[in-house]
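thought: fold this chain, then report.
action: predict
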Amino acid sequence: MAVVEIKENVFWVGAIDWNKRDFHGYSQTKEGTTYNAYLVIDEKITLFDCVDEKFKWDLYHQIASLVPLEKIDYIVVNHVEMDHSGALPFIVDKAKPEKIFCSPMGKEFIQAHFHPRNWPLEVVKTGDELILGKNKVQFLEARMLHWPDSMFSYLPELKLLISNDAFGQNIASNLLFDDQHPLEDILQEAKHYYANIILPFSPLVKKTLNKVEELGLEIEMIAPDHGLIWRSHVKDILGLYGEMSEQKLKPKAVIVYDTMWSSTEKMAKAIGEGLNLEGIEIKLMHLKKFHHSDVMGEVMDAAAVICGSPTHNNNMLPLMADFLTYMKGLRPSNRLGATFGSYGWSGEAPKLMQKVLEEANFELPFEPLRIRFVPEHDSLAKCKELGLNLGKKIKEKF
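observation:
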C-alpha cells in the first residue's frame, strides 16, 4: 500500500495484515489488523514504531519511497511488543540511527528481546522533550497500556498524539481515517479491543487520561498503532475510553453457557425469559458459537454475567473453564454473577463456576441452580424465577 500523509510531513508507513485472525489470544470481529508506523520528515527524520517482523520489507519499501533508510536520524520505540518491534533489528541495521528513544522499561525490554550490541538507546520519561526541527516531541509514559514499557509521543505543533496500542482497533483497511468508516462500527471495534486487551488496566487508563488533561495537551489527531487514525472523532474515542475506564455498566445480562444434550440450554433460555420480564437487556451466548473474546465484548458493559454448564467428569465443560479463566484474567469489576447447569449423578459444575466468580470478585446473591437431567415445567419455573430475581438485583444497581 502507498504511504499516506496524515499531517504535514508526517507519513503512515505501516503495513496491513489482511489475514490476521487471532490477536493476543482473541479473535477479531472484523478480519485483519494494521501495524501502523509513522515517519516524520523534519531536520531530524524520525520513525515512530515499527511493524511485525514478517512485514519488515513492507516497512522498508514504505520508508524508501520517501527517503533512503540511512537518512533516518531517530527511532522512537513507544512499545516493545513484537507486533510493533519485530522489524526493529532489521530497520536499525539498515538505518543506523543516531539515537533510539524508549521508556526506562522499554530499554530493559529491548535488551531482553534483541540483545543488541552498541544500539544507541536513550531513555526518556514523562515530560522529556525531543527537538526534531520545526516539530518537537513530548513523551508521556503510559505504563500498562498495555505493557509496563508503553508510552505516548505527542507533537504539540501538529496537535498529534501517537498513542501506540491505546485507542486502537483491529480493522484492516486501506482507508486509514475514522471519517472514512461508520463511526458506530469503529467505536464497537474499539470497545471490543479494550474489553480484551486494556480492561485489566482500567484504573491506569483513567490515570493516564487525567494526566493528558493535566498537561493540557491539545489533540486534533490520535494515531494508534492498530487500526484507524482518529482525525474527526477524537472526542468520541476519548469519551469512550473515559467511560470504559470507569467500567460504566447498563442494565444488561450476558448468559454464557455450554450444553451437551440441550438441558442447560433450556435453563439458559428460561433464565433469560425471567430477566426479560424485568426489562433487562439479555445476550445468550453459546460457547460453541461465540469465541470467548466475543463474549467479553458483551460483558464490557453488562451488569451481570450468568454462567451455565452441565457437569461432565465431575467438572464444568472445557469451553466454560476456558472462558472463566480468560474473563478472570481481564478483571471486570462491579458485576453480579450467577451459575446454573444440569447434571446426571454428581452436579459439581455450578458450584465450581461460582467459585471462580467468587475469586473474580463477582457479587453472587443466589445459590447455584442445579437441575437433574432434563428440566420440566417446574424446573424451568425455578430458572425463570432466578432470572426475575437477578433482574430485580440488576435494577437496584441503577
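thought: worth noting. The chain is about 35% helix and 20% strand.
final: C-alpha cells above.
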